[in-house]
Design a protein that fits this description.
7 strands, alpha+beta, about 40% helix, seven-stranded antiparallel sheet, rod-shaped
C-alpha cells in the first residue's frame, strides 16, 4: 500500500473495472427479468358487454330507457329503466346467483327489481327484468362474481403501468436490492 492509503500496482488498477463490470452485469441479469413488463391480459367481459344488445339510452319494453349500469351498496350492479309518460321507473339489481330466492336467474347472475324503489305495474316490472335478463343470458358464459366484472371497458395499461405492476411485494424488494448494487 502506498503512503496515503492508496492501492498501487497493476493488479489493483486492472482488476477493479473488471470486477465492477461483472457486478453490474450480474445486477442487470437480476433486475431485467424482475422488471420486464407483464404481457397484456385477455380482454375482460364488462357489464356493458353483458347487457348487449341493450345499451344506456336504449328503449325496451313499455318505452323504458336504460341508464348506465352502476355499482350498488350490497355487492350488486344496478340498472335503472325510466319512462317519461306515464312516469315510471324500475330499479333492476344484478346479483350473484342464489342471493335472492324466486327471482329470474341466468347462468351466473340473479336479475330482479326492488319493489320499494320501482314505480311501475307488476307486468311492466316483470317485462323490464325479462328484457335485461334475456340480454345477459345471451352473453353469460359462466362468469365470476358481480363485483369482479368491470362496469366499462378500460384501456389496457401502458408499458410503464405494466412495469410498475411487476415491482410489488417481494419482487419489488429484490429489484430494489439489485438496483442498489
Amino acid at each position: 500500500m502506498a503512503p496515503g492509503g492508496e492501492l498501487r500496482g497493476a493488479g489493483a488498477i486492472a482488476g477493479a473495472p473488471v470486477a465492477r463490470a461483472a457486478l453490474l452485469l450480474g445486477c442487470l441479469a437480476v433486475v431485467v427479468p424482475l422488471l420486464w413488463p407483464s404481457p397484456l391480459g385477455a380482454p375482460v367481459t364488462t357489464w356493458d358487454e353483458l347487457l348487449r344488445p341493450l345499451a344506456p339510452g336504449a328503449t325496451i319494453e313499455g318505452g323504458f330507457r336504460l341508464s348506465p349500469p352502476r355499482r350498488g351498496d350490497e355487492h350488486d350492479v344496478i340498472v335503472t329503466a325510466r319512462r317519461a309518460e306515464p312516469p315510471a321507473h324500475v330499479e333492476v339489481h344484478l346479483l350473484d346467483r342464489g342471493r335472492w330466492r324466486g327471482v329470474r336467474e341466468t347462468r351466473s347472475f340473479a336479475v330482479a327489481y326492488e319493489t320499494p324503489r320501482s314505480g311501475a305495474s307488476p307486468e311492466e316490472l316483470r317485462a323490464v327484468v325479462e328484457a335485461i335478463a334475456s340480454a345477459i343470458e345471451r352473453n353469460d358464459a359462466g362468469l365470476g362474481a358481480v363485483d369482479a366484472i368491470p362496469l366499462r371497458a378500460e384501456p389496457p395499461p401502458g408499458l410503464l403501468g405494466r412495469v410498475l405492476d411487476r415491482v410489488r411485494g417481494a419482487r419489488g424488494a429484490a429489484a430494489l436490492v439489485a438496483i442498489a448494487c
